Amino acid sequence: MIHAAIAIYNRTIGFFSLPRLSGAGSFHFFLLPFYFLFLISCEKQTTPVTLPNPRLTLTIEDVAVTEAWLRLGAQETAAEQQIIVRRDSSEIYTLSGAITDTTLHDSALLPAHDYTYRAELRKNGQKIVGTEPVSITTIDTTSHDFQWEIFEFGGARGSSVLYDVAIVNENDIWAVGEIHTAETDTFDSLGNWVPPYNAVHWDGSEWELKRITYNGSFWTIKSVFAFSSNDVWFAAFVNWNGMNYVELPIPNILIGHGINKIWGTSGNDLYVVGTQGLIAHYTDQSWQRIYTGMNVNFYDIWGAANSQSGQTEIFILGSLPSIGQERAILHVDHNGRFSEVDVSGLPFSLKSVWFVPDKSIFVAGDGLFHKRNLDEPLWKNINQGHPNFYRESVRGNGLNDIFVGGHFGLFSHFNGVSWHHYNATQLPQFYGLYTSLAVKEDHVVAVGVFNAGLGIIVRGIRNP
After folding, report:
1. Which of 250, 267, 326 is nearest to 292 (CA)?
2. Contacts of 151 (CB under 8 A, 6+ apart)
3. Interacting residues of 55 by C-beta distance below 8 A, sequence separation 6+
4. With contact defined as beta carbons under 8 Å apart, do 379 and 371 qualify?
5. Are 17 and 24 in contact (CB under 8 A)?
6. Where would I find the H helices in 333-417?
7. Which of 425, 427, 424 has its CA nearest to residue 444?
8. Distance separating alpha carbons of residues 157 and 249, to the nearest angstrom
9. CA distances (Å), 305 to each of 34, 339, 364, in order?
10. 86-123 b/e with 16+ CB inside 10 Å = b?
11. 97 backbone dihedrals φ, ψ, rounded to 5°
12. Pairing relation of β-strands 391-398 and 114-123?
């Protein structure tokens, strides 16, 4: 500021000075008092140097079975300072320099344990400011111990297969597909053609074969979704209301497409996905086709509500590895906006998706992969130690209770810490595959095709 004032004074003198006229010196003398007054004014208005006022906060972002994510908020920190983060009495992070807000990951935890975290800012070994302690309890593991039952269907007059399954409760389970028995695929005593079965229902004691027709004709059912015992959807065309099968008109936008999966929040809020890029939404008693410009076959859809906000989001997955090696994952936010998910690093053949909002997204197909959220740049490969078989389906109750089914009888469970593979122990390894599975609390059901064209259902009940 002083240097600036001098420069201004010099310019002022230069402007007002008239060197060849008499009295010029007296004019200089006249300006001097104003010059010194200006200097004094500048010195008084100089901004004082303020010392930093550092602030530190520590909050919990997320907790899993053996992991926790913490958000460290740091303001006004300096390069010569350090931030120390402690878990109980252990120092787990030492951060140096001018630290900004950051997420810290602690992965050395035990299941079902209590931990307390603190952070403090230090300079020259002296504490400047600290945070309030924050406490967590990690999630417990679940049991690998299940009691298993295996049921076979068909085996005559054609290859039988089950494509999908839905659990209402332990005494109300639906599976769908195509089942050929000794009495089907032939003419009865009256000369009427007897079509195959296309569904099977568990009532708590036995499986009953069902034949669900549409306009009086047989059709292979590949998808089923149940909201309750009185609201079960078979593909997008037939609804079981607890008493009758109600046939709905097939909209033009669905004709020519195979429906692979259904998901929804109610009978008036349904999504279906299928072949040749099919995505359609049913609401207010009408269908709307959602065009993405993708020609992949969409194989799976799953949605869930965020436990904190209550808002629902959806993931849709598809691939077309035989033509152009295409694959796609779409995210639908709570406002119904679609966006593409980065699939870099994923294989070209993808079949299933399942997630817990804001915690983890799992993708199955030619391997098993996951990432914590969409902001993470890379998909983590979690195939190490797994049988090298193709995965058809992934579902779960939570991050400590995840099931995967696939080829050659692959059936695995993750309890939050370890994987257990039942096809090497309690369940047979075979040449068929599990096409789909459903999980509800302590019940898990997988369906598919067994050796020699038998439809197969495996039902597991967790031992107490």
Report:
1. 326
2. 207, 456, 457, 458, 459
3. 73, 74, 75, 76, 129
4. yes
5. yes
6. none
7. 427
8. 31
9. 73, 18, 21
10. ebeeeeebebeeebeeeebebeebebeeebebbbbbbe
11. 95, -175
12. unpaired
Intervals of CATH 2.60.40.10 along the chain = 55-137
| DSSP secondary structure letters along 27-79 | HHHHHHHHHHHHHHHHHHTPPPPPPP--EEEEEEEEE-SS-EEEEEEEES--T
Residue owning tokens 């597909």? 177
Residue 95: beta bridge partners?
Answer: 83
- Cβ burial of 296 (10 Å; 0-12, 13-18, 19+) is buried
For 257, what's the count of Cα atoms within 13 Å in the CB-facing half-sphere?
27
Numbered ranges of CATH 2.130.10.10 in the chain: 146-462
pTM of this structure:
0.85
For the chain (464 residues), the mean pLDDT of every run of 10, in chain order, is 40 40 42 45 48 82 93 83 93 86 93 96 88 96 97 90 98 97 93 95 97 94 97 94 95 91 95 96 92 92 90 95 81 93 93 94 96 91 87 97 96 95 88 96 97 94 95
Give the Cβ contact number of residue 412 at 10 Å: 22
The answer to whether the CB of 210 falls within 8 A of the CB of 196 is no
**CA 7, 11, 14, 16 torsion-angle sign:** negative
Does the domain made of 55-137 have the CATH classification 3.30.750.24? no
The one-letter amino acid code at 59 reads T
Rg (CA), the chain: 34
Identify the pLDDT of residue 324: 62
Query: What gap in Å lies between CA 388 and CA 53, rounded to an integer?
Result: 56
Regarding beta strands 172-179 and 186-187, do their DSSP bridges make them parallel or antiparallel, or are they unpaired? unpaired
CATH classification number, 146-462, choose in 3.30.830.10, 3.40.50.720, 2.130.10.10, 2.60.120.280: 2.130.10.10
Distance set, CA 255 to CA 177, 249, 250, 275, 280 (Å): 19, 11, 7, 11, 12
Cα 248 to Cα 101, 175, 225, 287, distances in angstroms: 54, 20, 15, 11
The residues near 367 (Cβ < 8 Å, ≥ 6 apart) are: 347, 381, 383, 391
Judge whether 155 and 425 are in contact, CB under 8 Å. Answer: no
pLDDT of residue 323: 67
